[in-house]
Amino acid sequence: MFLVGFVSGVVVRTVAGLAAIVALLLVIFGVAAPEIGLIDYIVTQYYQGNELLFLAGLLFGLDAKQTRRVVVDRGTSSK
Q1: Is residue 9 part of a domain?
Q2: Which domain holds residue 5?
Q3: How many domains does the chain have?
Q4: Does residue 51 form part of some domain?
Q5: CB within 8 A of 43, min separation 6: which ones?
Q6: In a domain? residue 22
C-alpha cells in the first residue's frame, strides 16, 4: 500500500507541476485570461524580470518536504 501511495503522490505532484507551468504560460501569452487591467499590471510590475525567482519558488514549492528538511538541517548544524 505504501508503494501505491508513494507512486500516486509522485504522479500527482508531477501532473500538478506541469499543469501549473501550462497555466502560467497560458496567462503570460494571454490565451487563458481575458484582457483585464489588473492582470497586465501584475505581470508588468511583478513578474517581468523575476522569472528566475518565480521558477525557483515553484521548484521549492513542488519539493517542499525536502526543502523543509534541508532548511532544518542547516539550522541545527550551524548551532
Answers
A1: yes
A2: 1-34
A3: 1
A4: no
A5: 27, 28
A6: yes
| Residue with more model confidence, 24 or 79 | 24
Q: Distance between CA 15 and CA 21 in Å, rounded?
A: 10
pLDDT digits (tens, 9 = 90+) for 14-69: 888 898 899 888 878 877 766 677 767 777 777 677 777 777 777 777 777 776 78
Cell of 52: 528566475
| pTM assigned to the model | 0.40
Query: How far is the CA of 4 from the CAs of 7, 9, 10, 16, 18, in angstroms?
Result: 5, 9, 10, 18, 21
| Cell numbers representing residue 24 in the block | 502560467
Q: Is residue 18 part of a domain?
A: yes
Higher pLDDT, 62 or 1: 62
